[in-house]
Amino acid sequence: MERLKVAVLISGRGSNLQSLIDACATPDFPAEIVLVLSNKADAYGLTRAEQAGIPTRAISHKGFPDRDSFDAAVHDAIIAAGANFVCLAGFMRLLTPGFVGKWHDRMLNIHPSLLPAFKGLHSHERAIEAGCRFTGCTVHFVRAEMDDGPIVVQAAVPIHQDDTPDDLSARVLEAEHRCYPLALRLVAEGRVTIEGMRVLVDGIASPADPTINPLG
């Protein structure tokens, strides 16, 4: 089966990007990264990609008069690279509905909470302040609304009584690094179907089915 060609959009250090790079480097993984694109030329994730021999692009949003024109340039770069799927990995730009529509059901995002809880920024701080016993991470298909869309994989992470946001972030990040490659594998293998806001994996609801365990 032909490998799914993926563009990864980043804005920073690219730790989730690295988990995808490592997964794609294994011979049996059903996807390959054909482009890493950042809106920041100094993003360390671009260095990670270059070290792995993956083509990179930096397109600064500051050089465009509006979000639509920036998103159009990003879309054109993705198409030129031959990608037919997009993964957002710490891309700190709100995408326009037009861009999201072009990649409907062909774009994943990862968020450091158990969505729909704690959408947006500072999710770890907010989970601790709310007295939650658990938080986690979510890989979902992207919709026009922020941090919204059908959920492919989630993992729960306990919140300890003495946790700082940095402590919690580190543990959640370990789960993220497992969940994102798993979600991409499921999609690339053609095992995912979407019914409204529900994702089915092999015809079974995901991620509620206990046989689908992102933490191995």
Automatic annotation (TrEMBL):
Residues 5-184 form the Formyl transferase N-terminal domain. (6R)-10-formyltetrahydrofolate binds at residues 67, 92-95, 109. Its EC number is 2.1.2.2. The keyword Transferase applies. Pathway: Purine metabolism; IMP biosynthesis via de novo pathway; N(2)-formyl-N(1)-(5-phospho-D-ribosyl)glycinamide from N(1)-(5-phospho-D-ribosyl)glycinamide (10-formyl THF route): step 1/1. SUPFAM superfamilies: Formyltransferase. It comes from the Bacteria. Belongs to the GART family. Catalyzes the transfer of a formyl group from 10-formyltetrahydrofolate to 5-phospho-ribosyl-glycinamide (GAR), producing 5-phospho-ribosyl-N-formylglycinamide (FGAR) and tetrahydrofolate. HAMAP family: PurN. This is Phosphoribosylglycinamide formyltransferase. It comes from Oceanibaculum indicum. The gene is purN.
